[in-house]
Amino acid sequence: MSHKEKKKRKKKYRGFWLFVKLQIVLVLLVIGGLAYYYFGGYASQVSAMHEEAVRFVKESTKDTFRAEQTSQVYDVNGTRIMSLRGTKDVSYLTSDEIPEEVKEAMVSIEDKKFYSHGGIDFKAIIRAVWAMVRNGEVTQGGSTITQQLARTIFLNNDRTWQRKMEEIFIATELEKKYTKDEILEFYLNNIYFGNGYYGIQAASRGYFDTDVSFLSLSQMAYLCAIPNNPTMYNPYKNPDNTLGRRDRILKNMYEDGKISRREYKDARQETIVLSTAEPTKRYDAVETYACYCATRALMEQQGFEFRTDFSSEEDRKTYEDAYQEQYKTCEQSLYTGGYRIYTSIDLNMEEQLQNAVDEKLQDFTDVNEEGIYTLQSAAVCIDNETGFVKAIVGGRSQEYDGHMLNRAYQSYRQPGSAIKPLIVYTPALERGYTPDTVVEDAPIEDGPENASGRYLGSVTLRYAVENSINTVAWNLLEEMTPVTGISYLKEMNFAKLSPEDERPAASLGGFTNGVSPVEMAAAYATIENDGKYREPTCIVEIQDADGNAIYQKIVDEKQVYKTNAARWMTNILEGVLTQGTAKGLALSETASAAKTGTTNSNKDGWFVGYTKYYTTSVWVGYDIPAELPGLTGASYPGEIWYDYMENLHKELPYADFVAPLGTGNDADAESGTDVTEGNTAENDTTGDNTAPAEEERR
């Protein structure tokens, strides 16, 4: 053997013994580590983590992975109006609804061995480190998709060995309980895609303004580039990074045989254009009212019993506490339950009503310290055939961060003379009065004055209504008792009634708290509907996240006024528009009836009117009550009502109201359930003509 060969052999032996020594050192390190693990107390800690992981997964169900989902609200035509979300924007898709290209793209970049490993891929961790060193960026995830799911649903992002161990344990347990398709479904619906979007569907709608099923291959790969690092791959702030990772995904898919070379090249060349469309138009009043009605619908579905009449303040407080607790719970569910909420709102009617309000008040430009117009308005339109709300305006249009006060249902104001048909005249028609009954217009000691300051003596009841004579309304309510008059409002669920409202001043709209435009619209719709009341709402149906109907509105009717009394009231109110306080505001395309209302010092103006088709109420005033010179029910409120209703009925056939039968006395025998006497009306003072002293209004 030559010297050279001996030297080579000696070197080989040295290499062998070096390898052996290294293995011995590694074994000793492992033994030392195990000893430290057991004697240092970590064994029990790791064992506890494993037990906890087993419990987490054992107690989980498929609902665990769809616990928070964005709810969607639709108008009467099925057009999505808005999304309701809690802390996350999530729109859950089943595995069948997720395009295969999305699944392949995500697996190719995040977890190539997803379909073969048991939840953990140790080689992937080493490969990710090497790729980062070689390329200068993370091109392959270290954690498996299952690990990422475990972290997203059950853990947090703490970078500790304990959290990593829990992640591994949970991932292995998930693989035992759920199929690969289920795990990938859970993952794609829960992973964060940046900018508030959780899940592939929310990301698709957010970045491309369309459902994921309509995306191109390039767009799908683009979205799948984001979750690895939503900050680094933020499409808005770092578009080049996102495009680069998209290209890597496409290359992976090509190399994996998931797409052809032509598909690969075409997808890479496709220009990514993020949605630059104007944000979906906000219907602020619709959003807040729909949420309110939907929350109450869920409460109703869960058996909550709504009340507006209470035996005492303690009774009221007990109810309100229970109401608020249940409301909060159902509202939270509404924002996170993935519901599909179908409403009666017609967006065309909504825009028409909003435009009418804005145009008639456009000359009033003063704003408060928050930038909100000081002069405001609210309006509500109800479909008389169904009883559903078709349009709702909570204030004048303006840019505002967040939701503005929805005055249509959240504000309560004195109604002035607009209350008279509800608590005075229709009840009087039930009790033997007719439109031709002669009543006395004369001064009342300690009572109201008429707006004109004049008293006409003997007039017909029809004339008293048409000209909103205060003294007649006051005397009639005293005669039947305020308790009786107010009872009708209780039957129609007016929410802010008070025992102090049971005074003659209620005949002129004097209430402790006031009424809302929604309540007034529903009450006048009751008169048009032959005296039958229907609770106002805009919710038609609510479906759960799986498309199952959990709530369907059944329209219940309650006979509040006798049928013929209601028809006679309509007959009289037609005259208000032709020869009364609202002369000149009768609609040209169909029969119409209405009543005006103005409070003391012109602080509130009301106009509530209807046709066979629709009932619309309009209020105008300042949020903090203040005089508005020239404000009457027939001025700004009446003009808003007329413009909206005239335009609304242009394409509808002319329709007359149903004629009353005989006289008011005939009505008593004819139909309708009487309202039990012994309810109450009360408080403010006001009307189109003037009213009691200002101090009478609480």
Describe what this molecule looks like in 3D.
With about 700 residues, the chain is of the alpha+beta class. The chain has 23 helices and 16 strands. Among the domains are: about 85-270, Biosynthetic peptidoglycan transglycosylase-like (Penicillin binding protein transpeptidase fold, Orthogonal Bundle), CATH 1.10.3810.10; about 410-535 and about 560-695, DD-peptidase/beta-lactamase superfamily (Beta-lactamase), CATH 3.40.710. Helix content is about 45%, strand content about 10%. It is elongated and about 115 Å long. Mean pLDDT is about 85; it is low at about 135-140 and about 665-698.
**Average pLDDT over all residues:** 86
In the CATH scheme, the class of the domain at 410-537 and 559-696 would be Alpha Beta
Spans of at least 5 consecutive residues with low confidence? 137-141, 663-698
The radius of gyration over CA amounts to 35 Å
Largest sheet: 5 strands, mixed
Helicity level: 40-55%
Strand content: 5-15%
Please sum up the structure shown.
The chain has helices at residues 3-39, 42-59, 100-110, 122-135, 145-154, 161-177, 180-190, 200-208, 217-224, 239-255, 261-269, 284-301, 313-336, 347-360, 407-410, 420-430, 461-466, 470-480, 482-491, 517-528, 563-579, 636-648, 664-670; strands spanning 71-74, 80-84, 89-90, 197-198, 340-343, 375-383, 389-393, 438-441, 457-460, 532-533, 539-543, 549-552, 558-559, 593-598, 604-610, 614-622.
